[in-house]
Amino acid sequence: MQLALNQLPGHLAKGLRPLYTLHGDEPLQLQEAADAIRAAARAAGFTERSVFTVQGAHFDWSAVLAAGSALSLFADKQIIELRIPSGKPGGKEGAAALAQLAQQAAQAQEVLTLVHLPRLDAASKKTAWFTALDAHGIHIPIQPIEREQLPGWIAQRLQAQGQQVASGQAGQRSLAFFADQVEGNLLAAHQEIQKLGLLYPPGELTPEHIAQAVANVARYDVFKLSEAVLSGNLERTTRMLDGLQAEGVAEVLVHWTLAEDIRNLQRARAALDAGEPLPLVLRQLRIWGKKEQLFAQLLPRLRPARLAKLLLAAHQVDGIVKGLALPGWPAHGWQALHRLAFDMVQAVQSAR
Fold first, then answer.
1. Using CB atoms within 10 A of its CB, is residue 341 exposed (0-12), middle (13-18) or buried (19+)?
2. b/e for 201-225, b at 16 or more Cβ within 10 A?
3. Smallest Cα–Cα separation from 10: which of 192, 162, 138?
4. Is 80 exceeded by the pLDDT of residue 76?
5. What angle in degrees, to the nearest 10, is found between the helix axes of 333-350 and 222-230?
6. For the chain, percent helix, then strand, then coil, each to nearest 5?
7. I need a labelling partner for 321 at 20 to 30 A (CA). Which of 156, 157, 231, 241 fits?
8. Residue 326 host element (H or E)
9. Could you tell me if 258 and 229 are in contact, meaning their C-beta atoms sit under 8 angstroms apart?
10. Which positions fall inside the DNA polymerase III delta N-terminal domain (predicted)?
């Protein structure tokens, strides 16, 4: 059974289940969810803990299966944690063993099993072993905190330690500044919030408090750059490009990301003009999630001629990031990428 992360505290207050699976790529939230389950287990008398890490196809599953069934009459309750960093239990034998473990765990009264997995794709969620984990226990997907959710998340964390920003626009600007400083680095965001709790007493935090205390620890994902560009957010696009450059991300990867969006926009526009339905077009191009929404908003208003100009510009920038000089363009690769992104943002803004 699936459980949302924000439902976990209420669930644990009502009692423990014998099997939990956490899956996702956000270290802070994974750690906090696991800590909450362990704390509830300790309070319920689970005093022993064994940890196993699956590495490679030759992992000894018998040790894990035996650990959950070797309790004697006088043994303490125990927690068994199974970490699978690759997200793959390892061939047919591992898949069968993990499914067996799920079934065994569901029947154990003196053992709590906690399985750790990275973010799973759709195919992994359809496997027999994950179906068994779902059927016999609780699985909790750990979703990343997106940029638009970050100010609210920060405000909740501040409130939990007795602090808050000013009301009205001043407070919203403080939260937006805070979010810009920590975007893409939730663990560091948590540490910066804790730092504010150490530096200042409970109560209202001024914009000056936040500006002076919160360090710039943002980490940018090149694929999130697409969302900033397609949203028409020039300020965020510029900040992300500067951050990616400072982090040493390859120019060719950033160019590929921008160029692929232009190519997909042009393909989708051509398919729409040919009478194909938009949902089918986006599915064929493998455009999912938030980007799917952005494409759907933009495509009806983007003119083919504008897309053709952007595609030509992307072709020219491709040469620049590979060392070629072109008249009318900056010689430096990152400057050319800024200009290409600026042209894309302008096209998005004009299509609104």
1. buried
2. eeeebeeebbeeebeeebebbbebb
3. 138
4. no
5. 40
6. 60, 10, 30
7. 231
8. none
9. yes
10. 20-140
The SS3 call for residue 197 is helix
Structure tokens at 137: 């226990």
* Closest among 250, 346, 281 to 307, alpha carbons compared: 346
User: In whole angstroms, what is the distance from residue 100 CA to residue 66 CA?
Assistant: 11
Question: Are the beta carbons of 113 and 137 closer than 8 angstroms?
Answer: yes
CA 21 to chain centre: 17
- Per-residue pLDDT reduced to its tens digit, 193-242: 999 999 999 999 999 999 888 988 888 889 889 999 999 999 999 999 99
The packing angle between helices 186-199 and 150-160, to 10°, is: 40
CA distance 109 to 75: 12
Q: What is the CA radius of gyration of the chain?
A: 25
Cα–Cα distance for residue pair 67/45, rounded to 1 Å: 18
**Is 213 within 8 Å of 181 (Cβ atoms)?**
no
Q: The tokens 């890490």 sit on which residue?
A: 53
Counted residue by residue, the chain has a size of 352
Stated pTM of the model? 0.75
